[in-house]
Amino acid sequence: MSADAATELRIVGFLCNWCSYGGADTAGVGRFQQPTDLRVIRVPCSGRIDPLFIMKSLINGADGVLVSGCHPRDCHYSEGNFYARRRLEALKNFLPILGIDERRFSYTWVSASEGQKWQTVVSKFTEEIHELGHAPQINAERLAQAKAAMAAM
Amino acid sequence: MKIGVFVCHCGSNIAGTVDVATVAKEARKMPDVAFASDTMYACSEPGQDGIIEAIKEHKLDGVVVASCTPRMHEPTFRRTVERAGLNKYMFEMANIREHVSWIGKDTEANTAKAIDLVSMAAAKLVHNKGLTPKSFSVNKRVMVVGGGVAGIQAALDCADGGLEVVLVEKTPSIGGKMSKLDKTFPTVDCSSCILGPKMVDIAQHPNITLYTNAEIAEIQGYVGNFDITVNKKASYVDWEACTGCGLCTEKCPSKKSRDVFNEEIGTTTAINIPFPQAIPKKATIDAEFCRKLTNGKCGVCEKICPTKAIRFEQQDEPVSESVGAIVVATGYDLFDHTRYGEYGGGRYADVITSMQYERLLSASGPTGGHVKRPSDGKEPKNVVFIQCVGSRDKSVGRPYCSGFCCMYTAKQAILTKDHMPESQSYVFYMDIRAPGKMYDEFTRRAMEEYGTKYIRGRVSMIYPMGDKYIVRGADTLMGTQVEVEADMVVLAVGAEASKGAPQLAEKLRISYDSYGFYMESHPKLKPVETNTAGVYLAGCCQGPKDIPTSVGQGSASAAKVLALFSKDQLESDPQISEVDIKRCIGCGKCIETCPFGAIEEIDFRGMPKANVIETICQGCGICTSTCPQGAIQLQHFTDNQILAEVNVLCQQTLQQSFE
């Protein structure tokens, strides 16, 4: 269960339809109890996830973002998760530059059969986000700082 | 836009831990929602009728159903809204069962989460567009991968149904594991007598093309139109010319080749025909042991062959096949018993696997059906069977029950008594699992009529004592340690996924579980379908099965193929990418990233532009997140639709925390 059920945080999950969404379903069917903080957005493939979606979530007030797709080499679309991995890894490096704690974003691979793994992944990530607490608001000043940092690069 | 929201109770499945009335009440406050109600079972006939009525009464433009996972009932509800006269893509689902009510017990938190999921679905629905599927023609040929009993049955059923069938088998002969069995449970009828005629039917059927000694190299395309490259491995024999006379196998001087068919009890010649009933009955050279191929000296078979069929220079040969559907029946492998060091498998000659014992029992086996100890050729008196070797054991990564080992052990115990009336069999077992028709009666016969002694408990070790073996284990019913003197020990090995199964799954774009068994689309209602349209499963590649179940699945997958091919035209999924030609700058990034080659460059008034080939696009959307212009958008999962979900979810919190 969530670290503190009273103060639920806002965690967005982007899940590919074939593996991880199925895995989350399997976890449900198996009644593997999980924290309630995470809300899932279903996408066809982890390769469909534009880093923009994650940035928008974090800037708009999400406390954490979790992406999950098919295991490498087991993609329904052959190689979508490889594109995802490269993009998400690049994004992860950019987050601190933008003033966002990179621990608020994580990606993982869960297959449709791995209900129990999904439970572990969600519980662990939710716990980590609870340790970080609410994300600080991103106001004009912080955005300006981030811009300056990027310009200096 | 006027949206209708229907919140399903699913009996107590959802209503037990989600306040569905509150979800419906909150939904009514959401933008564009014109109607919201809760319903007992949205998927039932009255539930669906209620949705249709509401669409008509309130002139709804779109529907959100908050119920189970879209992987279950999205097609059901899409048909419902279609029956009410809406486009079926004006529908969204909020998964408040698998993702809410079943994973949390806190009603308040669950209700809040359900409201969020409904508002996300409604926000996405606002951006939905009606989509129209296109039709494309179907290539009514089917490929069956794997020539075991499941694949044979699927191929015969399809061929009898009038389809052209291509059967691909990786070993030199079809027949699979069943062809190695002496007898089958619970009837004790001869395996090759019932399988043999089916194998011959495959060879003689005018609709079946058979490739043995061949493997799938590459698969392109989609349901209705797969293009497959089959790699025919070099057999070093021209099979057109070979008559299967067997002269070459008699004269071959290299007699140390692995006898795969006889489970490597004994050896065979470098050029061999795997077994007398092999289909096709053609010789194959084992390149590793052939003297001509290894050091260039020999060539006896070439000299003796009456039809001059030997081709030492033969290479692997790729063959292209176009089919509309694929049945995967790649079967299983047996557990490697040498991983149990305490049983001495691989160290003690007379500790053998169940399949090796099967070959010793078989009249066509290496001993002509006389059970002989591999060490000294003597007939054993006490035979000890050990069950669950590589089944129900987490420590070797095989926590699942292989299902058929209890039964084949009972069969082998019965056959042992038949072959050697003076013998005594012992079976160390964990549980007896005999749920099939006449199965329990069969194991009881083994105990009561044939006097097999069943001992409940695991064996802790086996060690040699003179020319015998001592099997030491627990008898958990007696609560004591037992030691049994054995002349021979048979390990009832379990099943594991076929080697190379994950690699084939990647080519087929189907999922497999953590053990390598292929995943069916739904564990109960779609047992032979996969998540890739046009690819079906049969037999043990999906999980361990006995012969009747494998045959049943073979026929089931054939029925699915025949149903698929009953239409001349298939409808394509319209959830594919679409190019906004005005925004496209012709950079070609989408063309480079598309895994399916579904995007081509076209000339549009002298400018290069991207164009999506509708029938090839699979709807993954990799192009959409690649396009720097946002010019190519995956329909039904556009940037705007996904961002609408993000916005409704996250900006709410932002507003809350600003307050």
TrEMBL record, chain A:
Keywords: Iron, Iron-sulfur, Metal-binding, Oxidoreductase. It comes from the Bacteria. It holds the Pfam family FlpD. Residues 11-133 form the F420-non-reducing hydrogenase iron-sulfur subunit D domain. InterPro entries: MvhD/FlpD. This is F420-non-reducing hydrogenase iron-sulfur subunit D domain-containing protein. It comes from Pseudodesulfovibrio sediminis. The lineage of its organism: Bacteria, Pseudomonadati, Thermodesulfobacteriota, Desulfovibrionia, Desulfovibrionales.
Automatic annotation (TrEMBL), chain B:
Pfam families: FAD_oxidored (PF12831), Fer4 (PF00037), Fer4_21 (PF14697). InterPro entries: 4Fe4S_Fe-S-bd, 4Fe4S_Fe_S_CS, FAD/NAD-bd_sf, HdrA-like. Its cofactor is FAD. Residues 233-263, 281-315, 575-604, 608-637 form the 4Fe-4S ferredoxin-type domain. Gene3D superfamilies: 3.30.70.20, FAD/NAD(P)-binding domain, NAD(P)-binding Rossmann-like Domain. Keywords: 4Fe-4S, FAD, Flavoprotein, Iron, Iron-sulfur, Metal-binding, Oxidoreductase. Belongs to the HdrA family. PANTHER family: COB--COM HETERODISULFIDE REDUCTASE IRON-SULFUR SUBUNIT A, FERREDOXIN:COB-COM HETERODISULFIDE REDUCTASE SUBUNIT A. This is Heterodisulfide reductase subunit A. It comes from Pseudodesulfovibrio sediminis.
